[in-house]
User: Fold these one by one.
Assistant:
Number 1:
Amino acid sequence: MSGVAETVPTGGNGTGTATANSVAARGASDIPLVFDQISHWYGDVVAVNSINAVVNAGITGLLGPNGAGKTTLLQLAAGLLSPSAGTVRVYGRSPASGPSAYADIGLVPEQEALPGNMTAEAFVLARAALLGLPDIAEATRKALATVELDNVKRRKLGGFSKGMKQRAKLAAALVHEPRLVLLDEPFNGLDPRQRVGMMRLLEARAEQGTAVLLSSHILEEIEGLASRIMVMLAGRLAATGDYRSLRRLMTDRPHTVHVRSTNDRQLAAALIANPTVVGVEVMTDGLSVRATDYAGFARAVGPAAKHLDISVFEIKPADESLEHVFAYLVEK
Amino acid sequence: MAGDETKRRVLWLASARAIVRLTWARTVTPLLLVGMAVLVLLPMVFAVVFASRGPLAGDPVVFLVERYDQLVLAIAVPILSLLLGTSAFAAESNDGTLMYLVTTTTPRWWIVLVRMLFTATVAAGLSALAVWGSGRIATGASDPMSVTQAFGLAAALGAATYAAGFTAVALLTKRALVGGLAYVLFWEGILSATFPALNFLSVRQWMLAVAASMTDATSKRLDAGPSLNAALIGSAVVTVVAVIIATRRLSRPRLSRIGN
């Protein structure tokens, strides 16, 4: 069994009974991470609202727009925040129960700040020592080699690029080889090559049995990486399940596409005949087309325009923001 | 068993070294170094002026007791301790890097204790240096009535107490520096010197009590303080309470920029 509990989508209240059953079916101390009716609020603001979920070995994506509560949920999992209600369990114990809980947890925060006048090696060495590792030097060497910073280990962190800082943070989180790794927006600021490198690294950890929970506000970022996804919206768990089910739900929904051409009215008449189109509205600056299959529509619009000798200036999805997609999932 | 003991000791020492390295990395900034240098050199500048006047300058013991009290114990020691005590935890809390310290298996009380020992040692050393340097300039190597030695030890003890207290305050509030400065100027600078009833609640008065017990010099200020026992007990209580409060606070740190 891997990833989060099977429920797609949840309608906002987490995985509920499915989670309770899956936890009951196994020893609680075997499960990397369990959120049980977890809520957290800052004053009047509810950041996390009644979330039930189980995170197992493998890579789980925590997806949601900015402000959805992803960071708060990760901080609760890391024991840096106490839940206002509910419980969090990491391998059967509360992450806030004491420092020894951190033997199992590695956290890569979103914020970039690092002690700028320390070298990468000194920083990771300090972490290894504070984590009580028996062979500090070897653990540091291994962690820096894993993130490919071993050739710049004597350079100060203050002079590192964003991508290098991200890898230094990862080395600090992985130096004790924790069984649960929490990453908050780990791909921010990484170039494509660095992203691929980070993905391969996380995949390798997951293959070794580590549970990885990583947050992102960009769906494509975790596409192909996370086999399981938890979608958060406004503090609630909007949907959980395997990536393909969620992706299908997201792509199968009706799309709104903005089209501009040399003859919008004539093109509208042609498009409405296409089976993928369920509605067309002629606007002052183009057409607003509702299509059930975005890819099918995109394939059809070119030949239709060519047949009528119309030039198309622009085809632009109008509702592709993650908020739209998540809102659709919640409604569904 | 012996092997286990050795392993455990090395673990404590290794983590202590790591805490000191992180503290050094976050505490020692160019601005802080300039501030500390000014505070250490200021009493020495007064001593140079005093020494340059030769026999016309008056009794060096009276000069030193007054300057040690009004300049070193009232300003240099508390502000040095304030700068050191508030810089490390405050900076780490504000930029979120405190996370790298607290998401470890090292006990919180050990982190607090090592960090307080570091700041207390540096503050005490610099305070003693300010006393010793100005005494040496004003009186040469003679140290009449052991006044430099007495104030040097008193300043070191006071600096350690202040540093422990301010380190704890830095974990409690974002405005530790402003709050500490207000405390130093109003409580220690004005109120405790004006109202004898507050002697028992003033680190400055405790330092004077320690100094008075070790020197034959007399002055109104030296003789008005609390007893040596009261001073030592007060200092110990502040330090222990600071460790407890800081340890509790570090269990739930304020990480204002850990994420959005």
Note: Chain B has one domain: 2-257.
Number 2:
Amino acid sequence: MSVILGLALAAGVPADLGHSQLPDAPKEAQAAELMGTLRCLVCQGQSIADSDVDMAADMRRIVRQKIAAGESPEAVRGWLIERYGSYVTYDPPLSWTTAPLWLAPLLLLGAGLWLARGTVRRRRK
Amino acid sequence: MRRWTLWVPLAVFLAVVALAAWRLTDTSETVVRSALVGKPLPEFSLPAMVEGKPGLSRADLATGKPRLLNVFASWCVPCIAEAPQLMKLKAAGAQIDAVAIKDSPAAVKAFLSRHGDPYARIGDDRDRLVQIGIGSSGVPETFVIDGQGRIAAQHIGDIREDDVPKLLRALEDAQ
Amino acid sequence: MIAEAGLAALWLAAAMALMQLALAALGLRLKQDELVAAVRPAAIVQGALAALSFGLLITLFLRSDMSVLLVAQNSHSAKPLLYKFAGAWGNHEGSMLLWVTVLALAGAAIALLERKLDRATLTATLGAQAFIALGFYAFLLVASSPFTRLDPPALDGLGLNPLLQDPGLAFHPPTLYFGYVGLSIAFSFAVGAMVTREVGPVFARAMRPWVLAAWVFLTIGITAGSYWAYYELGWGGWWFWDPVENASLMPWLAATALLHSVNVLAARDGLRAWTLMLAVVAFSMSMVGTFLVRSGILTSVHAFAVDPTRGSFILVLLAIYIGGALVLYGARVGRVKAGQGFDLLSREGGLVLNNLLLSVILGIVLIGTLYPIVAQAMGEQLSVGPPFFNKAAGPIALLLVAAMAVGPLLNWRRDDFNALLGKLTVPATLSVLVMAGTFAAAPGTGWMEIVGLGLAAGLSVASFAPLWKRKLLRVPLFTWGMVVAHFGVAVSLAGMAADSAFTSERLVAARYGQPYYVGPWRVVLNGVAPVMGDNWSAVEGRVTASRGPVDGPMILLRPQRRFYASPPTDTAEAAISTRVDGQLYAVLGAQDAQGRWQLRLWWKPFVTLIWFGGGLIALGGALSLIGRVKRERRNVKRREEAEL
């Protein structure tokens, strides 16, 4: 994705998108939701939506610029993952490494049901 | 409950202890590395930061000869510490370009006159567009770019004395 | 002098714990009554000594004694009195001393108040409590002493982190610790029962009030913590699935399952193995939480101690205590006789489902919290946050809420499906109506929020169903407790769903006098002026807001940006206005080059229901506790009268 495009967009928009919202409400909603799930790289465990530091504002600016340009939130997330790895997203992408994590709820439910069978089985005659 | 299931919680617990123990002994610092190491530099073009020095674009880093890309700022304290090492690298023949983060021309000019100017080009990245675009997460960082504009290596943090030969060797290897 | 006295009291408390353990172990082993008789007094003295030590630490902070290292590092003479007091536990060593004090006081409470349990099990319980205390005394005395001197004394201290200079600090850690560490009582009871093999309704009835008490405190502690983070951190979030937050949630989940499971054990002598396991797991989660929060292996915005060496110490303690209890479990529980059987569709069946779902949520939270470390071991750097936890645990939590509506209506042993359907018609219809209505009014709302609102509506009706057609004054207090607590869950869920679905946010670069709009509100920044506090200076915005007609009633909000001198920090103090139907939340940012002020505004409909619901849940627990104690006293009296 070209960074030149970002600069061109920035030149046309008067407000600093790191600290202000997109005028298009649905796009801003998309951007806001995405920013709540992206990690601030220099903070102690905050999303870029919640952090006050400069770098978070710069990341927010880039996210809003890309969404305004029509990119999908998943594409923007992918762009950041391309640059920083999965660390930057709070929504771990499904892969062989994260499969145990995402399958855990089903596995736990299954294991629990199997254990509970043993408990409930002792029915009253 | 079946007999062997009674021991499952203990087994799970021991696994957690093992994991925690490993993590406690693993003292490697958690730094966020760029995921673009080994990949081509994204396209970019930055205006000049200071008068008399050209700005920086991707094309300037794909000239056929490996170059160093230094991410710095005049307000960054470790950048002052690494300035002498950058001068040494330049003296040893390394070609160094820079990207200045969230900076102003006056401040950068003052920085260069006080601490030395090893840079051929300095790009004005006041919105961190390029810094984020190449996967850098702080200042200072130094990237080794090969002749075809691919990121060969990333050095996070200020350059120390013993990093100088390592970087020179990295430049050699990137030929 | 005072510092040395505090340290001495702590050493004596540790010595008393050692003696308590020896007396209990030897007394039981050798069957010596004199030894056993001394265990209770030892526990009481231990509690008193630990409390004395903690009291002396507080004295040091109140006096701003800068010759004590901890005070110099964490306090300042200019601090308001409340924060000198609460600041005693606003750091690692002080909060660890509070932890250990609560542990010792819990043991003393058992010794003073427990009457139902048989002698042998009570002795084993107190022995277990002493054994746990010993490890943590050792940790304090060897690796985290709060009483170390500073020579020469500092002229003044470094001050308390401004984010902690808030009434929340006076409230959240103590209530949380009473809950968190209070669960050690259930743990010790379980260990005691596994040692003496006395697991039955008597044991359950004895343990129940202690579980309820700890659970009530834990519920209050988590609710208070959530509200504190919401207004202090300045971005309107009340839960981030942060490791420290999860560390307090996991014991709560286990304790909730435990307090339901213990009812089955008390009423029907069922679920013995589950109840024992949950009692062990609950406090184990507390200890694991303590480890996670203080060892630094996970990054957190709430982290207040990062020390791998101390972490290793705690990990060893964990291995001994939790490992020991789990070994005892594996060895003994196989021989614990199973209780009476029951049908799938029965109160017991419902409670088994409850146990199951809560345990699954607990497992998901544990795995999600630890997974970044697992990934690191596999060579990858990952972040696991709200998107995972919400998607993974959310649906299961919604299932649990549905089960909560049905469970209390079920009969013990077995129930009739058709009769049950009859009782559920009204709540179910209401749920469907609310879901349809929400979808019609706001089609873009997420499915979880819609289902959440629907279930909240259904549960709020269903939770009162156990009272239907009964003489309200004759209904036992503990049944009222259940009704109120379940209703509280419905209220809280409604708040969570409403906040997630209907919050409006506006971020503006505000000029003076210009109106901006957020939700139904018209907001104007009138001016920004400097303001001074005890130990801070600030710039304060004067924001007026109104809704409806332009000349309607105005509310005034004063968001600040504060600057503290020691330690030098700046914080944003949010301004919140609570209305009947929600909160208006304003945060002042920085001024830009054109003189405009960044203003972040939120309108959060019904968000206060979240914490109001939490309060109701705790109230329900308290009513249950009082109800059970009263019922027990009545039963004892009746038994005594019958014997006469």
Note: Chain C has a mean pLDDT of 92.
Number 3:
Amino acid sequence: MKDLIYIELYKLFVSTRTYVTFGIAVALMLIINLGMYMEGQEIFDFLLESVNEYFYVEGKVLNGYLITYLALNTLWVHIPVLIVIVAASIFASEFELGTIRLLLTQPIRRGDLLGAKFLAMVVYNLAFMFITVVSALVPACLMFGTGDLVVFLDGIQFIQETSFPGRLAWSIGFATLSMIAFSCLGMIFSLYFKNTLTSILLSMGMLILSTLLQKFVFGVFSSWQPFLFSHHFSKWQLFFMDQVPVSSILGSAGFMMAMILVLGLFSYIKFKKMNITE
Amino acid sequence: MRPIHAIIVLVCFFQGFGQDLSDSYILELKEKYDNDSEVKCQIRIRIDIDGLTIPEKEVYVEFARDQKAVVRGKGLSLLPKRGTIEQFRNLLSTPMQAIFLSKKGSYRVYKLVALDPSSDWITADIVFDPEEKLIYESVVNTRKHGTFTTLNQYDGKDYPSRTEVTFEVKKFKLPLKFIGSEQTAETLSGMNDDVIGRVILEYTYL
Amino acid sequence: MHLIRVEGLSLSYGRQKILKDISFCFERGKITGLLGPNGAGKSSIMKILGGLVYPDSGTLEKGGRVMTDFSGLRNSCAYMIDSPSFYPFLSGKQNLELIRRVVDGPVDLDELMNRVGLDPGSKKKVKNYSTGMKQRLAIAQAMIRDTELLILDEPFNGLDPNGFQDVINLLRELNQSGKTIVVSSHLLNELEQFADSFILLHRGNIALNISKPELLQSNKKVVFTFDRTLGEKALQLIREYGETDEKGLTAVVELKPGDIAGIVERLVDLGAVPVNLETQNILQEKYLEITS
């Protein structure tokens, strides 16, 4: 099994696609930093207009921590899209290239191969999130320094600078779990459709649909919320609330774990029983 | 016609009832606070407003006449624009008419009416100790930002050791789509409610 | 004595029956040729034995053990499936290294690549390989493990004559070292030369299952050409075994290979000296007979 994991990681990290997605993520973060450098102060003056009516706001509103937090908001769409491109190809490309036969005619178990690919996918998610966070945090802190964080969650919240690293770590951990769950969607579509592009499109379609449905919070639509991926995924932001709603977050983490388990199980069943005719 | 307007009319037509600036108590207060002295202090700020969450902060502040307060502290801090010790100078240095309203025990209650149309306050009810020349309560009606109520406690000094400022404010607006915040039916429903803002300032003078 | 025996093998894709309850075995230490037209089921059999496809029914017997899970055969069998695929962004050697890692094979990859006619030092990525190079690489990959059974699906595709001869020699060498080899191919003449037995598939059934000695014992079609019309006695002799054309200048007869010389001698005695003698490949003949 460890040899299979090695092979999958090797293929992952010699593939150009992997580095393209890393590069795009870094570029996104740098663009955000640049945008904030040029117009950030104006934006926050506008956002804090209502506060400014009653208070003098002293200190650095626009700081590296705030910009990192803003950059993470690209998690809504951009990052899942980038991640699923590679995650889907980890599985689908073997069918497209025909190399699945090369592997499965060796004396290895299908479950082991699937497990190795899954682990490679997890490692990719971890690497991607790490690179994304570092490329957001480091330039932002170098350019703007650190400071308290202003977040717009349930009103306006000011978060102490000292608590930011811990909150960020937990938040990224939760977001990574969410991305792994989302990647599992790419995985199962890949196994059913054996095509990278189809898998990516379907996964993105599900994300867009979920995000759209999440906006409908009234009437019958409100009962769908607990079943929407984006409803749970968005809870990464709650780590930046003054009083972190731990039970709500744990519930959503449980949803993600369940999603990983269920999709993983269906993938295993599908792959185990699949006829490889390509 | 609002009561305040009636009072102003009465003051204008029946000057005999009005107390002009030469009221000795007010003059003594003015003499005490309307000066160029700089005040330096540490302020512990506690803000309690629905829709605004900020941890307790301690800041170093320098108050000087006709200058914006110099604030230094760790991280971000919010210093209320009204209700700090600046308000004494702000009130008493504005051209105004002082109307004695009543006595409250040993304290005297006055209504101050701003005569300068450019001042940010219109009227202010103050409760002060004429012996100690310390203002214990004030209710200030501003032109643009409603009414501020301050309650001051003293610790043997000329300026308060503790001030509680309350005011009415609209729940702070959220930039709904800017940062893609999570909106639920519950949070959306309370968006335009007026809430009471409360700020507690604890002073340590340097 | 057989190495593996397959009984009652059936496979269908949807309503289409690919293999219809066939049974066969591969003799230990022999080379078996698997033949058949396109769509006959050759590749399907190889995919079933390779654990890629699950049959509807069938059992596999090896070493006295009967199993229904054919994927277990992979432990003692190496495969080369048709149209071999590798990771295009890696070189040939890098591809082999990945496989070796998985199977924990002790083989020297440089030596292996040299053996199949590839340069182990080349950094060329597989996406730039020719078809023939990919075939050689596929054969090399099947040789990473030292298994008792080697199954090769169309190993000669895309090979030039030199490459083809190299592969034939390699397979003979492997067979002489004791390996059992199964090869599918459309090159009937060549297959007839080096295989020990033949299984011919047609429309999901085994149409012919014959060893080489038996094949050689079967009648061969011989075409005699004469420069003059045959005499009556010569014609009578010819008609016992076949027929002539209208002019009596060409005769097509079916003879056992060992009888050809005798017939030629008798014709010569009768004054009918053939100026040309052509024999058709028996295997090809049987193939065409069954599949046409």
Note: The mean pLDDT of chain C is 87.
